[in-house]
């Protein structure tokens, strides 16, 4: 079992992530960063607008996927731990975050 400092929740300015979670999130962001650089290169090379738009859509999908993974990890760790610890304000925080994500 993890010690409390390893599962200490996001209350709420930082969070310890496992090496696997950290590497997965960083890999996703690196791929997204590469996609954005690719779009910039397309624009610099006067690529056809629909081709750029398709790539922008792919970046949006990748960012949405990143959000889903991060949110799921947050719910499984921080939110679940806080609820078990009686910190109901975490549910309110989660609702606010979800409202922002669903705009």
Could you walk me through the main structural features you see in this protein, from its secondary elements to its overall organization?
This protein has about 100 residues and is mainly alpha-helical. It has one domain (about 15-100): Metal-sensitive repressor, helix protomer (Methane Monooxygenase Hydroxylase, Chain G, domain 1). It contains 4 helices and no strands. It has helices spanning about 5, 20-45, 50-85, 90-100. It is elongated. Residues about 1-10 have low confidence and may be disordered.
Topology diagram in text:
Elements: H1 4-7, H2 19-44, H3 49-84, H4 89-101
Helix pairs in contact: 2-3
Task: Please give the alpha-carbon distance between the first and last residues.
Answer: 38 Å
The topology string of helices and strands comes to: HHHH
Measured as a percent range, the helix fraction is over 70%
Shape: elongated
Category by helix and strand content: mainly alpha
For the record, what is the CATH homologous superfamily label? Metal-sensitive repressor, helix protomer
Mean pLDDT: 89
The CATH topology? Methane Monooxygenase Hydroxylase, Chain G, domain 1
Strand content: under 5%
The tally of strands reads 0
What is the CATH C level class, in words?
Mainly Alpha
Characteristics:
Methane Monooxygenase Hydroxylase, Chain G, domain 1, mainly alpha, 0% strand, elongated, 103 residues, 4 helices
